[in-house]
Amino acid sequence: MSSLTPSSAAASLIRKFGTNRILSPHLRSLCAISALPLPNVSVVTDPERPAAYVWSMTGLREYLDGPHKAARDLVRDGLAANAGLLDAGLELSRAEYRDKVLEVMQQITAEGHTARGFPKEFGGQGDLGGFIAGFETLAFGDLSLMVKAGVQFGLFAGAILHLGTSRHHDEYLTDAIEGRLLGCFAMTETGHGSNVQALGTTATYDPATEEFVIHTPTPAARKDYIGNAARHGRMAAVFAQLVVGGETHGVHCLLVPIRTKDGDPLPGVTLSDCGAKLGLNGVDNGRIVFDQVRVPRTALLDRYAQVDADGNYSSEIENPDRRFFTMLGTLVQGRVSVGGAAINASKVALTIAIRYADRRRQFGAPGSADEALLLDYRMHQRRLLPLLARTYALHFAQAELVEEFARLFGGDGVKDDHDQRALEAQAAGTKALGTWHATETIQMCREACGGAGYLAENRLATLKADTDVFTTFEGDNTVLMQLVAKGLLTNYRESFGKLDPLGTARFIAAQAVEIAVEKTALRTLIERLRDVVPNRNDAADPDAGLRDDAYHSGMLRFREEHMLAGVARRLKRGIDDGVEPFEAFNRCQDHVIAAGRAHVERVVAEAFLAAVQAAPEGAARERLRDLYDLHALVTIESERAWYIEHGRLSGARSKAITALVNELCAVVRPYAGELVDAFGVPGAAVDVPMVVPSQHE
Amino acid sequence: MSSLTPSSAAASLIRKFGTNRILSPHLRSLCAISALPLPNVSVVTDPERPAAYVWSMTGLREYLDGPHKAARDLVRDGLAANAGLLDAGLELSRAEYRDKVLEVMQQITAEGHTARGFPKEFGGQGDLGGFIAGFETLAFGDLSLMVKAGVQFGLFAGAILHLGTSRHHDEYLTDAIEGRLLGCFAMTETGHGSNVQALGTTATYDPATEEFVIHTPTPAARKDYIGNAARHGRMAAVFAQLVVGGETHGVHCLLVPIRTKDGDPLPGVTLSDCGAKLGLNGVDNGRIVFDQVRVPRTALLDRYAQVDADGNYSSEIENPDRRFFTMLGTLVQGRVSVGGAAINASKVALTIAIRYADRRRQFGAPGSADEALLLDYRMHQRRLLPLLARTYALHFAQAELVEEFARLFGGDGVKDDHDQRALEAQAAGTKALGTWHATETIQMCREACGGAGYLAENRLATLKADTDVFTTFEGDNTVLMQLVAKGLLTNYRESFGKLDPLGTARFIAAQAVEIAVEKTALRTLIERLRDVVPNRNDAADPDAGLRDDAYHSGMLRFREEHMLAGVARRLKRGIDDGVEPFEAFNRCQDHVIAAGRAHVERVVAEAFLAAVQAAPEGAARERLRDLYDLHALVTIESERAWYIEHGRLSGARSKAITALVNELCAVVRPYAGELVDAFGVPGAAVDVPMVVPSQHE
User: Fold this and answer.
1) Which of A54, B69, B342, B433 could covalently link to B438 via disulfide, CB atoms 3.0 to 4.6 Å apart?
2) pLDDT tens for residues B246-271?
3) B455 to chain A: which residues are within 8 Å by CB?
4) A588 chain-B contacts, CB cut-off 8 A
5) Is A32 a residue whose pLDDT tops 50?
6) CB contact under 8 A, B473 and A451
7) Looking at the partner chain, which of B278, B372, B446 has a beta carbon nearest the beta carbon of A461?
8) How far apart are CA A236 and CA A189, in angstroms?
9) Mutation choice for A interface testing from B476, B535, B586 by most A CBs within 10 A
10) How far is C-alpha B434 from the chain's CA centre?
11) What is the pLDDT of residues B304-341, one digit of tens each?
């Protein structure tokens, strides 16, 4: 399977199915790319005839793996070695499963998988890009392991690294990185998940003892859903309102021991278990309540703000909102990682479902004793192949994001504010799109495999259950899309206002609305797009240019900018008319979120296009090109009502797009198996009974 | 909460929130329906001022419960009494959970819940409508219990009743109905789920011993996913190819013992376990392999076909396809039941998510110390309230379906073929739409509750996992939608051809295409619709008539009939052009399925409208009317691209529909809590910690 010429593929199909018409579109395209005549005897009798070029799957897989191939392969090998974990969640009790996950996590830690992203002086390799790539690859395996590793190394150790200073690094970082000191990232509370600026937990400085008193003042201030809290965590990075000298300075992070080495809760700390969850039952999510727990002054992670022994608070960042969001920068890594994990989980599901559809037959095909393959049904192609194309698109967008993240966070620590805000928005958007995509894709794959897909042994069930929370953790997707739109509307300038809609609306109204809405700029944009975006007058030739890159980009950019300008206008008009900012915002909240999404979709499509253009010449690039066209056109098709409403598409052209999407599905179909092979998901994760039935029969 | 006047509701909101603008749309509508002036001091000071009418939730709930209120209430009481079962799946081992489900099933059987649908002579009440209504109501509780009861009473006992004759009834039916004889419905095989006409299991008559020999000739012919097979079933209704005198007569059903009373497999029977599943782990799905298992001649359920001692086969139904589909009529009840169960599971999820959204606050609202309620955010309304409206629509469509089912199957056994085909299509369509709706709704509810929604204690996780298979069991939804379209295209006439796409295409091509495609008829239809369906010339007043019933019906009917005619034309043209029938069908498979869906959506919307019109006058009807408008307009909105492409909607009017949908969400929002209360889901099923936190704190 590693290398197959189109002509031999065509010949093999002809041998297998005869010149059966069902497969003729596939044969036609196979022949077309190999410059063969349409199927005839000479192909069958001369299967080894040299093709115009070689279709190398190995090359495509390497291209997808990109610069972090080594990190990915190391995780792939580890996954294969720990394949047993994939069944652990099904057969073990919850407590046993959690312990098993911990055991494997500590084992892979010992093998050096997880330290990669940390500075060399603490045993790491200073390779942030490889760290994220490796983390993403964990999503090919047991997702509880991935999430637990994310909590321990990304969130807990990450908070120490990014928010602490040398004394914290020296004291804790190596133990945290090597998995000896297990910790929690105690941010979310029962009452506040999205609006973390309003957390209720307090950390009050007592100058008499030079201690902070950590306290949970109300039931709503209980720390909730905290990974590692129910069973394994010994310390927590606790986010709390810092109160010094009677004055509240906003949310800061402190290291608070919560358990003894024997696992007993420390005095004043009440720990409980969130119990069974829809998925991720190998992660011990729990709750923490603090009753006047005292920690030394040095427990404050004091990179961005300090409290001296006498109780004087100081910070180099004067604006409290800006300070808060700077500290929250630690969340970016989590969002980048979860987005990547979601995309990789989609690859697992598609690998399984497409292989199944390429061997499962149901209902009769004419002139053949066999029934037809599921993947030869148009509806089945329509359900799975656009999702395959979007997975490729998101893969490349994610790869771009990881490089930018590594550039900004992995370097000398000097970050440009504008770049960082842009990165945060991009991470938020990719996370939201990638995790919604995973939910949709895995669901579709499950349905496409019928009852077999419902059995745990075929893995889709677990994938679905484990990834479901991705859309709401590390930032609820709808809130993240608002963040994206806000960044665009304010052009990332001075956008340190609160995350809440009110702050956005006020900010837009007061300062920056002109940036996006400025009319002459918009007019110029529309002029610029007019040439590449045909409008209703395209009726004469509705198919013209549908596979033209400039057309796709033009359409996606037009939608993005038109929507953003519309939102800005509506917000400004509302405020000008004296509408309360919350209501002004709320009236167009759906519009705001759609605008954010339009932006991310455009960026993702352009990342895919750039990857196609940068690919080495040859068959793999041609296949990527087909997939890209499919993706771009499906994206436009899904919003075709909007395009028609806004005069950018005629009814005839809209129908032509749908017809071309169907056609492109048929073009991609013969390569679908190879396209999922190129994801390089280890066999342990995808060789399930319904795909490899001989294992069980 | 049982009775609240709009004026007191308005006053209470004003007391609670002041004259805060966030809530003003709700206040406005509350005031409007109670004929009050817009909020002012007099409302606040006179909260008990008599309203124009009383909003009675009790009345609405009774209206929803309809003629089978007693059956529903009996199940509600049973559910409350067995509330412990709701947690059983989380804490027990799979084996223990299965046994617990069996125990509760036998207990409710003893209480008379499950016999309701059977003839009185076997201990039943002959009340088929009440039986289905009660079964649907089981979906408020543990879904493993519901499915296991469905297998035992609907499928196994149903097969004996519908396919057997008096000797089978006398020997087995009472024991089956009373849960003493546990049985399987062994139809699906590993190799064949949708295409059951191609099952591989054989039942070969041996005249020498007057026995049938049941055999599994290939691994693909293994019975798979069979409920009750892994642990509890002692007998199976086995669907097999009947071979008599060397001739195969197609699929028939025979009763085959599989286990001893002690639970050991009988000789020649190999039983295995499907193991863990995504959900429904309280049901013991398993696999059955037969190795030359002999059963007496009388094991054949011989209502529609008989084999005499000498091995002469006879049937009153000569056409083998027609015979097969007549026997398959037993599946209709399963489809009706699953559709209803899915709709009820959606009610549970919406009750939880809407109550949560009506108490959960996040992010600041101006002029208030409190943060804003989630349900006051437009995006949250947009995500949940159209689903609430569709749940009502499906509820009423399902109620219509149940009555028609009871009429046809519960009567004297004389069925009109045309009516039965129409019922089968309607059951298929409602099942597909209802189960897709459940998957979408429960997913949305889970996401709308964030991390809390992911915890098993809040029930959405279990609901999601348990209902997920509904879209593919009892008929894969895509295959069912093809069945719907096929019935419409052939006008249910002589449509006894095979279920497969090929048969459909051939049939359409050969005989009946004129029925749907006849051009003059289509032209008449379009003329008829022109008056009520404004086209592009509506730009002058895009809002006109958007809440007009005739407009909604006209639009939905236009789409349905236009799509069906288009499919018929394409199929016919393909065949006329000499395209292989499979390929001709396959080229428009997406179109076929969309046409089926368009039909079901129109029927569902009309059922809702009929229910609104039939409701007693008063506030409840007004609220239903708002919900109906919301549902009808969201349905049109979701296909607005198609309507614009086909000249039935202008861009301006399309935007006006979206604006009105947003507005209707705001109109419905203040009643959302009462509208879910009216579903009457017992507290045990919905009083989860995130909604009633005091229980756990």
Assistant:
1) B342
2) 999 999 999 999 999 999 999 999 99
3) 225, 274-278
4) 378
5) no
6) yes
7) B278
8) 14
9) B586
10) 4
11) 999 999 999 999 999 898 899 888 887 899 999 999 99
User: Which one has a higher pLDDT value, B210 or B17?
Assistant: B210
pLDDT at B569: 85
Q: Which positions in chain B touch A22 (Cβ < 8 Å)?
A: 580, 582-583, 586
List the one residue out of A342, A374, A382 whose CA is nearest residue A357: A374
Report whether A312 contacts A648 (CB < 8 A).
Answer: no
B651 contacts on A by Cβ (under 8 Å): 644-647
Give all domains of chain B, ordered by start, each with its CATH number.
3-53 (no CATH), 63-181 (1.10.540.10), 184-320 (2.40.110.10), 330-677 (1.20.140.10)
Predicted pLDDT of residue B490: 74
- Using one digit for the tens of pLDDT, what is the confidence trace for A499-541? 455 555 555 554 434 434 444 445 555 555 554 455 444 556 7
Closest CA to B258 of B225, B222, B295: B295
Taking residue A150's Cβ as centre, other Cβ atoms within 10 Å add up to 25
Give strand pairing partners of B622. Answer: none
Distance CA A57, CA A687 (A): 19
Closest C-alpha among B2, B695, B691 to residue B349: B691
Tell me which residue in A277, A472, A502 faces B450 most closely, judged by beta carbons. A472
Measured between beta carbons, which residues in chain B are less than 8 angstroms from residue A582? Answer: 21-22, 364-366, 372
Buried b / exposed e over B654-684, threshold 16 CB at 10 Å, is bbbbbebbbebbbbbbbbbbbbbbbbbbbeb
Of A131, A124, A139, A204, which is closest to residue A680 (Cα–Cα)?
A: A139
Cα maximum dimension of chain B: 94
Residues A611 and A393: their CA atoms lie apart, in Å, by: 9
Cβ–Cβ below 8 Å for B580 and A366: yes
Give the number of other CB atoms < 10 A from CB of residue A526: 14
Nearest beta carbon to residue B582 from set A190, A372, A476 = A372
B117: distance to nearest CA of chain A, Å?
A: 28
Q: pTM of this prediction?
A: 0.89
Chain A, chain B: beta-carbon pairs less than 8 Å apart: 236
